[in-house]
Protein 1
Amino acid sequence: MSERIREALSGLLRAELLAFEGSGEEAQARVPVSRVRDALIALRDGLGFNMLVDLTACDLLRYPVSHQVGVTDPCQATQGDAWKEKNVTHERFELTYRLLSLDPESGLLGGRFAVKCRVSDGEIGPPSIRDLWPVADWLERELWDMFGVRFSDRPDIRRILLYEEFVGHPLRKDYPINKRQPLLASRLKADGEGISPAELRPKLVP
Amino acid sequence: MNDEAFQTPGVLTSRLDAAIGWARKYSIFQYPFVTACCGMEYMSTAASHYDMDRFGAGLPRFSPRQADVLMVVGTISHKMSPVLKRIYEQMTDPKWVVAFGVCTCTGGFYDDYATVQGIDTIIPVDLYIPGCPPRPEAVLQGLMLLQEKIRKQGAGSGRQQP
Amino acid sequence: MKKSYYLNMGPQHPAMHGVIRLILELEGERIQGCEVEFGYMHRAFEKHAESETWNNVIPWTDRLNYVSPLINNVGYCMAVEKLCGLSVPERGQYIRVIASEVSRLTDHLTCIGASAMELGAFTVFLYMIKAREFLYQCVDKLTGARITTSFTRVGGVKADLPEGFEEQLLSAFAEVRRVLREVDGLLTKNRIFYDRVNGTGRIGREEAIAYGITGPFLRSTGVPYDVRRASPYLVYDRLSFEVPVGGNGDNLDRYLVRMAEMEQSMRIVEQCFRQIPPGAHSLEDRELIEAGVMFDEGKAGKTGQLWKAEAAVDATLEGTGQRCAPHIQGPQRQYALPPKEETYGSIEGLMRHFEIIMWGRGVRPPAGECYQAVEGANGELGFHIYSDGTDRPYRVRCRPPCFFPMAALGKILVGENVADIIPTFGSVNMIAGEFER
């Protein structure tokens, strides 16, 4: 299966197929942001990948360069300062579109495949695929909410898990885990108004 | 019961107080504000094995106006907090709040951007039942402690409202 | 001209068990449009997973799908083991299967019980919770906790099956079967129940696949997709079980599929008890000898015991300290925890335990990423893990199975009556902890 996918994708994308690795259920390919949609359409219509299993991202801000996919020679990566934290915003987010080809009659798998692309910080991401798989609507909203990845034809995308008042995107590596943004002002901080901290303490029944 | 004449308790009023406290103790109408994992143990406690009905707390009311014990069962996130506060405010006096599970007591191990670090930062709490989730036995013990508190409170509303 | 109006349902609604808000556009009783608003239980599982060591993430996985926590434990540990290239001893795999299937039973019992209660059948709820209680007692005996189990470890499980577990579980199954017969008699041909679930909440097969729906929800449409069957993991390929399917994709089918699956789960566990081999339940931990000492002993020809041991490297090359010099890869590959008796009984055991558990030490899977799917109670539960070679996961993504039917919920409900929301939402079996993570 992965050989057929490789042929189909390299026929479609030629030099723009940035990487193709793994085999069987682990196979994956990396494509440029602008061609993700084309690749997914080809996989869906040509190769029977009828289910979008997952769409997720990873913030590569602190991911060591030497471990990244596509770096073939680890010695090259360890030279100079390359082994330090990457901490650059170029190609910061790695998006993974995970596909499944399912035979509705037998319930058996034709294969699994993952398409990846990298989006830089501040750059507009790939076009939306919510017309190909309707569930992508929510998955894309989650990516915007958690990572701040935008989709090129969804300028007014809304948050999904958090509230609109929230500033920032929590799954970015530079968002501290306990930076809270309460919707409701804490009663402990209320000055004069509301209840004082002493009253909030549990009262013991005599 | 807050009239001037009743401010100094006489024999009659203190007896009445005790009677009201006793009656309230066994007629707990709870509002289960169930959000998360603790709901599973709440179900277990309410169902036949542990049977909360033995303590006069058998009937959950799903309208805050008919309930007098607000059971906050499970993690409260910042997105949920205005809803919780509103439901608390809709309840009529006398009312009590039970923090069920460690997330509602202190935030538990969810020390993160999304979770309220203890519901007592939003609404006053009468009883804390820690545990992640608390076992049904712990819930029943908590319920008995709450009953004791209600009984001692008598006819007073017990709490200064914010 | 007909006028439509809006109705808000939730986030605190007795039938929205959990915390979901539906904004309905109604025309009379008919639903014209439905928007689902959620996130009221988002509690940052994925962020927490990035700040904990590999083994410490396991307690967080309990609270994803808290109705079937053991399946989450198993799924996460299998993903980490896939990354490390470990394989758990056979007995451990059987124990994981038993644990998963017991969890699946509790999940389906709760799902049917709760949704029947919302349709007015309170007795069914009490019966189902009674049956679940017997299973919880078994889970309690096995793991030491009723709900938040944290049972698996990277490389195995916490402990072997306790004494008398098999008898207790089999007698619990007898109770469950009795309850299921009773519930079957109470519900399946009950006119009130039947009329409310038959033909409501219908979804087509192609549409279900396009929405990425898996699990009982997909099987009710007639697609026999089950991860245990399609890509077998653990020892599922040695066990015989059937994958029940429906045909119409409505609430009745989903109820029937779940009822039939419970019987299959019990069958699987009974087969496991017959097949389970004796032996170790986890990878056995190996003795650590300092690299220099090992080298000297080997040179001196004292190789008799060396094959059992592993060379220890300097602690500064391990864990988070390793980030300063990632090009020096310490060869230490120590994954297994010592048995609890040794941890509590000897200082060496305790030290080895800390070597695995403490921050900056412990399990360090090689850099890379992997995806592992298991069959959760609601469908395909996947863990997509990135490792950067340190003691903490770089990123853990959980593919929540109930996210996908929930995405379709708004579409399914259009054209139905308000009363049909209750059985449809009940059959999705939305679990907030997993849905919103």
Protein 2
Amino acid sequence: MENNSTDFLEEIAGKEYEHGFITDIPMDILPPGLTEDTIRFISQKKNEPEWLLEWRLKAFRSFLKMDLPGWQNFTMPDIDFQAISYYAAPSSKAKYDSLDQVDPELLETFKKLGIPLSEQKTLAGVAVDAVFDSVSVATTYREELHKLGIIFCSFGEAVKEHPELVKQYLGSVVPHSDNIFAALNAAVFSDGSFVYIPQGVRCPMELSTYFRINAQNTGQFERTLIVADKGAYVSYLEGCTAPMRDENQLHAAVVEIVVLDNAEVKYSTVQNWYPGDSEGKGGIYNFVTKRGICKGANAVLSWTQVETGSAITWKYPSVILQGDNSYGEFYSVAVTKGKQIADTGTKIYHIGANTRSRIISKGISAGNGQNSYRGLVQIGAKANNARNFTQCDSMLIGDRCGAHTFPYIESKNKSATLEHEATTSKIGEDQIFYLNARGIDTEKAVELIVNGFAKEVLNQLPMEFAVEAQKLLAISLEGSVG
Amino acid sequence: MLSIKNLHAGVEEKEILKGLNLEVKPGEVHAIMGPNGAGKSSLASVLSGRPNYEVTEGSVTLDGKDLLEMSAEDRAREGVFLAFQYPIEIPGVSNINFLKTALNEIRQYRGLEPLTAKEFLALSKEKQKLVEFDAKLVNRSLNEGFSGGEKKRNEIFQLAMLDPKIAILDETDSGLDIDALRIVSRGVNKLRNEQNAFIIITHYQRLLDYIVPDFVHVLSDGKIVKTGDKNLALTLEEKGYDWIKEEVAS
């Protein structure tokens, strides 16, 4: 099907009217539906070069050929890809005029997390004052980074300003045909972040999307690409502890990380998307593809994730250890309560010689929550002396929840050393009572026990983030015991 | 200070304490002895507010306040301390962090400012020395991988740190070798003062050689059937419990 873009735009405009969209923002939201035209429209809206459109279209064609997977440890929800709207222009319009209009429950949680008022407003979508701290902070940061040659910008900006870098690395770790959700993301991704750390540069601060201007409204099909050139170092933070609500149920993000010789990337995530009501209705499906490659010798990639939100969390941040002596890590805490489901873990591919990896997974289930660890450690034929250590611990709170472990090991090299440890424990009434008998109430007791359980992972997070994550775990499990 | 009147309590319809009376005044040490199944540990559980125990009759007050109306944590904050017969392991929670949380929760309840890190550390050092507690165990996970003796000694360290009005030692001597027993007893003796009181639950007279009680009570079938001084413990050691049962029956 050939389409003249002008005709197409008119058609879309007509459709919007037909569907009774609010007339003062006629071009801001694309009506639901997914065809090649949708993709052309998105690409055009973003003024993308031809090669990127072609790439999106290839992804879309792969997407069409794929079926939804059937191996996951949960019932796949019905997802109508045609019912999703794939484009919404970043809106500067606030949802609310003041905090008084925001759900009091949400505000209560903000208070417990100790989030400053100005941030509460941004997070809840309240109009902020003309002079807003984080905007000026962000500008200052950008200048400082620019001096070092570090590129940290939106994906859209990167396509315009650094097309050669984007072209070189886009899809090089997660191909557009990798899996159905990655293909969908590649076809329709809205925006995201791009990071490039030049050779030998150590990024002096934690990079966080929070500090990036124009970071809003890219949530649903976000795409992140991080490249650490030889000898570079960066620590990147994604998400925040504040509860995030979104009208869009399906989130299919892609994160690609390239780590060259002697470089190191630390990627930390705190995910607290809306988990749905007590029946699990309306919660986010967080289906994310995250993968990094240690391309050069001595490269290091470390994933840390704290997953407390979403109705379903389904992701396996992975590491390809291609360079000799490269090292990959995966630290995870996943909390499921109510009707939440998590099927998460990692895949580590040992390809180079003397490659090492470490996996620490902590699953906490409460209520009717189901928590699965699924991991693959693959040792290639040339990965002499590869080493992996895996530990996956599960903690159960109550007797209606579940913990499941699916560890896979595939080794083609006899010199590999692989260790796997697993434990399952239950927060017992006797533990709670012991702490009660020392003057600690049940809520605080659970907080202590859970944070003790997850300590090894939380310690991996940058300091400030770790403190927030601790509070988050406690709040997530409030009322789960007793 | 602690006043227990006509206490009836049990688990799941089964009555274990059947009208127990006990008055404890500041500065006193009361030993509670008795045959297996007499209700000694149940008494400790009921006083400290362990769930599943139901009080059907009677009253327990501490300085006039009704303990039975309070949650376990509030009883602790009011000054009740139970040294557990089987201390619980909590992996990943450091002993010191746990104690700091506990102490500051108790202080907050009493309207006191939380201790600063420096003050807390100083207090911890002082108490470690007082009860001869191994500094290495302070930073380990709470009771995790501790030997039986180390766990019991940790209970006494906690007792020293939290400085309760009334401490109940539930068979603290069980599983202790003679050296550990001496250390634990020395600790308790140093912590005894005119403001606090101890209830020591034990099977054996041995502990009472080290911690000399003001009163010895014999608990049998959910009631205190005989009260005496430290010599009663010696008699029990020699003659067992049967003669008391007979005395009660006649």
